[in-house]
Design brief:
The chain is of the alpha/beta class. Helix content is 42%, strand content 19%. It contains 11 helices and 10 strands. The chain has helices spanning 39-42, 50-72, 91-108, 117-123, 167-177, 184-193, 217-232, 239-268, 283-292, 303-306, 311-322; strands at 8-13, 18-25, 29-37, 81-87, 112-116, 135-140, 145-152, 155-161, 272-276, 297-299. It has a 5-stranded mixed beta sheet, sandwiched between helices. Strands 8-7-6-9-10 form a 5-stranded mixed beta sheet. The structure holds 5'-O-[(R)-(carboxyoxy)(hydroxy)phosphoryl]adenosine (KG4) and zinc ion (ZN). Residues 16, 141-143, 168-169, 171-172, 183-186, 189, 277-279, 281-282, 307-308 line the site of 5'-O-[(R)-(carboxyoxy)(hydroxy)phosphoryl]adenosine. Zinc ion binds at residues 117, 121, 141, 277-278, 308.
Length: 342
């Protein structure tokens, strides 16, 4: 593919609670990036309600795609391919994006590419950086946590993953227990800013020597036990102490992530770590990674590309498009797609 050719891919993402569409040129130049967040709709329930998410995606998908094209100054004719998240995620939510993308591909006669949500998160870093292969990736979101050796744009190996709660899930559940609301990650990080990370030594699950897996469910139980004990003693935690607990719990999550990622890089001889997924937005995680891996190049996407967006989906499809890969209209939503398929 000649370098003077511009390939514009329309990305569509509807795997959870964001309806997103973006136009990305040549896998890295973001021409538009539109995200319709459903946070306000799910907030009263303290988490994402799948049925409501699907209905919201249905209402938002057409205007969001239209806005993405308008903001990019691009017509349907100028689009070279349509990329859509095929999974993993909420089945009803995924189905809206996949059905829309298939119908559009048929209507405007353009190629279709189904994208693994996780390859999207990983591709997000290429929107702003150019890491050289191979590198180590720490993928941390609300549904997965894992360490992956990324050998090329089509080859990778999962080293370890969460055995129970994902890192973002731990943030969300602990934030909920502390009364900090939804979405829990940013709320807990904000509360932690006013707290002391050394206030309480919550447990860290290091697991066996040489294991690159994670486990966060014990930490969640420890926080719940602490809060319940205090309630039973007739002395429930007040606002200032909640901030200390938030800081201590955040430290227990991000310390394990940072220490294990830096140790894996050292053991396996990688000098670059790419951090991706919603939890990569966490400033304390970023600081600790820099502390733990002072000799490593540590790259993460900007905040807006850490959490769910469609620019990352379009970026992930670019190399596959260039290799001539295409999906047909048999493409279907795959809510249980494995952690990493490459
Ligand atoms: O990647 P993402 O948007 O969706 C999934 O693919 O799951 O990640 C969402 C997760 C949520 O669990 C959210 O609480 C967490 O990322 N998150 C954060 C922060 N921002 C989002 N966790 C910690 N600190 C943050 N600043
Ligand atoms: Zn995600």
């Amino acid at each position: 593919m000649g370098s003077n050719i511009s390939i514009n891919i329309l990305g569509i993402e509807t795997s959870c609670d964001e309806t997103a569409a973006a136009v990305v040129c040549n896998g890295c130049l973001v021409r538009s990036n539109i995200i319709a967040s459903q946070i306000a709709v799910h907030q009263p329930y303290g988490g994402v309600v799948p049925e409501i998410a699907s209905r919201q995606h249905l209402e938002a998908i057409i205007p969001v795609v239209e806005q993405a094209l308008a903001a990019a100054g691009c017509s349907f004719e100028e689009i070279d391919a349509i990329a859509v998240t095929e999974g993993p995620g909420l089945v009803g939510a995924l189905l809206v994006g996949v059905s829309y993308a298939k119908a559009l591909a048929l209507a405007i006669n353009k190629p279709l590419l189904g994208v693994h949500h996780w390859q999207g998160h990983l591709a997000a870093v290429f929107l702003e950086h150019s890491p050289e292969y191979p590198f180590l990736a720490l993928l941390v979101s609300g549904s997965h946590s894992g360490l992956v050796e990324v050998k090329s744009d089509s080859s990778s190996r999962l080293l370890g993953q969460s055995l129970d709660d994902a890192a973002g899930e731990a943030f969300d559940k602990i934030a909920r227990a502390l009364g900090l609301g939804y979405p829990g990650g940013p709320a807990l990080e904000q509360a932690a800013e006013g707290g002391n990370k050394d206030y309480y030594a919550f447990p860290r699950a290091w697991l066996s020597e040489g294991s690159w897996d994670f486990s966060f469910s014990g930490l969640k139980s420890a926080v719940l036990n602490y809060l319940n004990r205090r309630k039973m003693l007739g002395n429930p935690c007040q606002k200032e102490e909640i901030c200390h607990l938030a800081a201590s719990a955040q430290e227990a999550i991000v310390e394990v992530l940072a220490v294990k990622a830096a140790a894996a890089a050292k053991t396996l001889g990688y000098n670059t770590i790419v951090v991706a997924g919603g939890v990569a937005a966490n400033q304390r995680l970023r600081r600790l990674l820099l502390e733990r891996g002072p000799d490593l190049a540590i790259l993460w996407p900007s905040q807006i590309y850490c959490t769910d967006n469609a620019a990352m989906i379009a970026a992930a499809a670019y190399s596959r498009f260039c290799r001539g890969e295409r999906d047909d209209l048999g493409l279907n939503a795959n809510p249980r797609l494995g952690f990493y398929k490459a």
